Amino acid sequence: MKFGRSWLPAHIFAWLYMVLLVVPLYYLLVSAFKTNDQIFGSPFSLPTSLSTANFTESFSSAHLGPAILNSMLVTVLALALTLVLAIPAAFAIARAEGRLGALVERVFSLGFLIPTFAALFPTFLLAAATGLFHTRAFMVLFLPATAMPLSVVILVQFMRTIPREMEEAARMDGASTFAVLRHVYTPMCMPGIATILLLNFLTFWNEYLYSLVIIGPDPDLRTVQVALPTLKSLTGTDYGILTAGTVLTLVPVWVVYTVLQKRMQQALVSGAVKM
Amino acid sequence: MTMLSSAPGGASVRGPVTPPPSALTTKRRTQGGVILAVPALVWYLVFMVGPLVAIFVIAALHWPGMLQPVSFAGTGNISAVLDDPVFWDAVRNTAVQLAVAVPLMIIGAYMLGYYVAQKPPGHRVLRYLLFIPGLISTPAKAMVFYAVLSPDGLLNGALDKAGLGSLTDAWLASPSTALGSLILLDVWSGIGFTAVLFAARLGSVPDEIGEAAQLDGAGHWRAMWRIHFPVIRDFVGVVTMLQFLWTLFGSAQNVLLLTQGGPGSSSTTLSFLVYQKAFIAADLGYSQTVGVALFLVGLAGLLTIRRVFRQNY
């Protein structure tokens, strides 16, 4: 028997951690539908009604509507720019034969060692110097740079698996370098593109500190991650509204995760493996 | 892992199928090629490398606020930082945080990942749930913890109900528990996500290795640490480096959201000190000097972890 009695401590350990993991999340979810009295009186009971009052209240008091739109705008544009920059770069590195290509690849892979958080203040200066302080545009330009090392390295590995004959056949038909990139390499490394899209979707959507400092607290511009913590001070200790707001910000990520669970786990695992 | 098998070979390994290219195509490739990498490279140098270099420059400046005159300070900031007791508190807190959180996370996650990789009953549910902390943003996690640990939050409520009312505390606002709460948050969210990484890597270890160990009569404990661990030792090293970096640099966000470094400086970490001196105290030279220290700690940690996980090679 593979899972005999000697496995009992392991089962207990694993499911105990699971309980510790799930209880706060369950508490978060059910509290979103309750009033403060109900939360304190019976924290674990299922909500008596599926009232959306807390959601609408958190939505309006923290201006979550524009914040969600801002987050989507920044995330989508930054993802597009990441692809526009990373695909040609990976294409160049994967095909390069000389020392230059190897050098460029090395520069990108060293980027894993650069801790993004460390350079917050100089990045803020850069935003101020370019006149893009307190704009979403700077985040759209900045986020792809942080994603560049991982995205390029993952794409290069996908592109290296594409047989050279594919390109030579296209060349025979008179295809230019750009046409080879567009019609041969890009379609063939779609799984790699999906991987970096998913990985970067998570990081961009969840980004907090840079958005806080650079976009700032203006309710018309700020992203959802910046808007969320303001609920804590706005509502004082109304946990129903606070938890409802938190749940709202999790919905997009949770939907993507549930639909693409396998793929997303693979993406994050490969992200770690490539470092 | 299909993902791992669909992109074979590391960055340095070329597939053996590649035919030697003719001189003509080689020339054309390098010409059309490397130029396409220039935009990405420029982006990366401007937004990542530039600011990193700037940390070292600003660390040598006396700059008491954004609109104040700037002057050269030489090593003045270094002595100011070293003479500041708050800096040493931050060093101590960061050391405690790293020494407790990283080993707990890695050892716990390795054991949990090994368990999941053996496909016990319910392993699919486990995998799905374990991954959730990896999806939730830092502010959302902090809000969950705030709801649990605040004076009238879930934990105190539960303690009251259980008749342990004397144990209740203002967990995030008490000098003795503030740092512990932050470490708990790191470990709580770190174990699950890291365990999924380990489970995925262990899943690609050939089954024969485990079977051979069982035939030899090795117990599970032995199989886990003596047989599987050496196989994925490199990978454990990489994940440890990542968790080390995330804990070291990322703690600024949790501290900012939950304790603001207080009470006093009891939960101020190095990375929060960088943030606080730059954006709250407006002592920019000081802030970036701590930034340099943080960077060096990160580098030293990376090299040490690399050495530890390679020593048998």
Topology:
The complex is a heterodimer of chains A (275) and B (313).
Chain A: H1 8-31, H2 36-41, H3 53-61, H4 64-95, H5 99-110, H6 120-129, H7 136-160, H8 164-172, H9 177-188, H10 190-206, H11 209-215, H12 224-234, H13 239-259, H14 261-274
Chain B: H1 2-6, H2 23-34, H3 38-58, E1 61-62, E2 71-72, H4 76-82, H5 85-117, H6 123-130, H7 138-149, H8 154-161, H9 178-203, H10 207-215, H11 220-231, H12 233-258, H13 270-279, H14 284-310
Antiparallel strand pairs in B: 1-2
Describe this structure in words.
- The complex is a heterodimer of chains A (275) and B (313).
- Chain A has helices spanning 8-31, 36-41, 53-61, 64-95, 99-110, 120-129, 136-160, 164-172, 177-188, 190-206, 209-215, 224-234, 239-259, 261-274.
- Chain A has 275 residues and is mostly helical.
- Chain A has 2 domains: 5-53, no CATH class; 61-274, MetI-like fold (Orthogonal Bundle).
- The model of chain A has no long low-confidence stretch (mean pLDDT 84).
- With 313 residues, chain B is an all-alpha fold.
- A two-stranded antiparallel sheet of chain B has the order 1-2.
- In chain B, helix 5 (85-117) crosses helix 12 (233-258), helix 7 (138-149) packs across helix 12 (233-258) and helix 12 packs across helix 13 (270-279).
- Residues 1-24 and 26-30 of chain B have low confidence and may be disordered.
- Chains A and B meet through helix 1, helix 4, helix 5, helix 6 and helix 7 of A and helix 1, helix 2, helix 3, helix 5 and helix 6 of B.
Q: Uncertain regions of chain B: pLDDT < 50 for 5+ in a row?
A: 1-24, 26-30
CATH H-tier superfamily of chain B = MetI-like
Question: Could you say how many structural domains of chain B there are in total?
Answer: 1
Q: CATH fold name of the largest domain in chain A, please?
A: MetI-like fold
Radius of gyration of chain B: 24 Å
- Secondary-structure element order of chain A, N to C: HHHHHHHHHHHHHH
Q: Given the C-alpha coordinates, what overall shape of chain A results?
A: globular
Major sheet strand order of chain B: 1-2
Oligomer: heterodimer
Report how far apart the termini of chain A are.
38 Å
Would you state the CATH class of chain B?
Mainly Alpha
Subcellular location (chain B): Cell membrane
Membrane topology (chain B): Multi-pass membrane protein
Protein name (chain B): Carbohydrate ABC transporter permease
Domain ABC transmembrane type-1 (chain B): 91-305
